[in-house]
# Entry
Amino acid sequence: MADFLTKLTEINNAINSFVWVKIGLVLLLGTGILMTIMTKVFQISHLGHWWKKTIVGVFQKDTHNKTGKGSVSQFQALCTALAATIGTGNIAGVSAAIVVGGPGAVFWMWLAAFFGMMTNFSENVLGIYYRRKNKAGEWSGGPMYYLKDGLGKIKKNSFCEGAGSVLAVLFSIFALLASFGIGNMGQINKITLNLQSAFFKNVDAPVLYGEGESAVTVVSVVIGIVLMILAGLIIIGGLERIAAVAERIVPFMAIAYVVGALIILFANISQIGAIFSAIFKFAFGIKAVEGAVVGVAIKEVITQGCKRGVFSNEAGLGSSVMVHSNSNVKEPVKQGMWGIFEVFADTFVVCTMTAIVVLSSGCIDLATGAVAENVNDATLVQQTFGQVFGRLGAGFGRFGEMFIAVAILLFAFTTVLGWSHYGGKAAEYLFGIGGAKVYRIIFVLMIISGSLMTSSLAWDISDTFNALMMIPNLIGVIVLSPVVVKIVSNYVDRKIKGKDVDPMLSYDPSIQAEFAKAVREGEE
# Structure
């Protein structure tokens, strides 16, 4: 078994290095830059407009209304997407990026997110434009549909049709497999480790196998069973139940975590200048004598920052499109703007808070970028909260550790819920509605395996499938970028410049006619 795992690790590392370093990062940043330029820097030039339509819109009734079977409100779509994106990547992922790539990784995380805003925007615009109703009367959308019906028919020849269909199937397969890693076992494993560390550290539970902090005990099994039951009660109920839970949990957990991180920030306010200085100072690598060493350091910093940024906000993966497409919104650009806000909230708010916590922990030398010995990036944030809260008095340190354990529980558990929908939509595309039902049952049963893992291999494999999902999706976004530009220009002309032009709302003539009539009557 050990030999098999070693070989599997070697193969995965080779694939991961190729798809991320050789293809993925160039394609990811390139697509974001392309869409930023082609939309005339929409995330900045129309900042006030998308801010008004998203964060201000949260307090408007229409944002919370939902109509039709299988549809969710705009706010529910956002919360479900954030449920899947705001996960352990925002805590352990950011911590790992800094420990491996240094403080400069945060800069590349920000940069990837800035351009990723327009990648996510473009994905969601295409997702709404190319979605359709399935046999159950529910909306189905995602990269597989705009690959097949957009890219596959853009030139109306057999090559494009074949390429579009193949890429749609590949994306669905990779999304299905990734859902068991990033969206299931990896998240559950982090929940189990952090709950044991915070609440059951002194419990003398029988060890089943493994040793040290990664040992699998009876407590691990119990945690896994409880999580499996809770998730099953929600996931088997479908998207509407998942969205209802996400709508209640996500705003609370995000605000609570940011408030907790702000306490750490103010407790270490004297270090803020040094923290931001280190982020920019080490963004282009650590100073070394030999140029080759500098080159390796720079590549590692960029790779870690961009990879963990995508792992966190998922811009470019095409995953969140599958829930945004279930929104009751009729304007593609309107849902696209929620995609911009999604990346902003995930990376510029939540991930930045984690970065400040990690860089103020004392485990990272802000002058040299060096990491202290025996630092565990998986529990570094938890330890920092414990240390800072511990200054308030006896017992508060324990509270700080438990606070992060509960935060990871909520972050990771809602990620599991969100990804169950993504994987279900991929299964629906490949095997039909019946296949999606079978998938959900298998997905729930696999949850307990995450609590029994002792290796980081599942996370590494998830990283690889993320990149494999990203490649066909971004090919579709690039090829269909002229379509995005036309839809955006049409929206800007109508909604911002006040021109009287026909709306572009769907590739399907019947849906276009229905939606155009509703939009003209003021129903967006």
In short: Residues 2-487 form a domain with the Amino acid/polyamine transporter I fold (CATH 1.20.1740.10).
